Amino acid sequence: YNNPYFASSIISGQNSFTNLTDLTYGRPAHIASFAFSDTNLLAFAAPGANSVTLANITNLSAPVWQSALVDGVNGWNDLAKPQSVAISGNVLAIGSQGDKAVTLANISNPGAPTVAGLIKSGVNGFNAVGEVWEVAFSGNLLAIASYSSNAVILADCSNPSAPAPRAILNAASG
Predict the structure, then answer these.
(1) Cβ count within 10 A of residue 92
(2) DSSP reduced 3-state for 46
(3) What is the tens place of the pLDDT at every residue in 29-71?
(4) Are 71 and 79 within 8 A, CB to CB?
(5) In angstroms, how far is the first alpha carbon of the chain from the final one?
(6) Strand partners, 35
(7) pLDDT digit string (tens) for 96-106?
(8) Residue 42: which residues within 8 A CB-CB, separation 6 or more?
């Protein structure tokens, strides 16, 4: 990494990247978070567009659009204002500020990802899931930073269709 260089850019409206426009202001949406997989997949969240985009970056000079996960479209119902994304294996975690949820996606086929599970207060034994600002994986353990709950929630995602709460860290827990 002694000689970094500019490889390419991803621009709204170019090369199938059409879901990157801010829905409120009609201008290019900012990217709040991105994550890389071990298989040359790039996921990035655009809160103003209520979407997460998957791109193949095998050829850095020519990223290839794979799919767009858009809130309210094709079963992606908890992606309002996605703030953070993280990848572990074939699982993509998407933290939503607007829906106060984390959607787990199966990305084994990046061209047709599917909803694998949901982490949300009142679902699967979870509570204290408020506005999600950050998600991070360590193996199958997912850490969720919830701004409005002032908490970090630890979730076991070894079975993404049935994530399980492991701990809630906040001022009340000491």
Answers:
(1) 27
(2) strand
(3) 788 899 999 999 999 999 989 999 999 999 988 899 999 999 9
(4) yes
(5) 42
(6) 43
(7) 999 999 999 99
(8) 34, 35, 36, 54, 55, 56, 57, 63
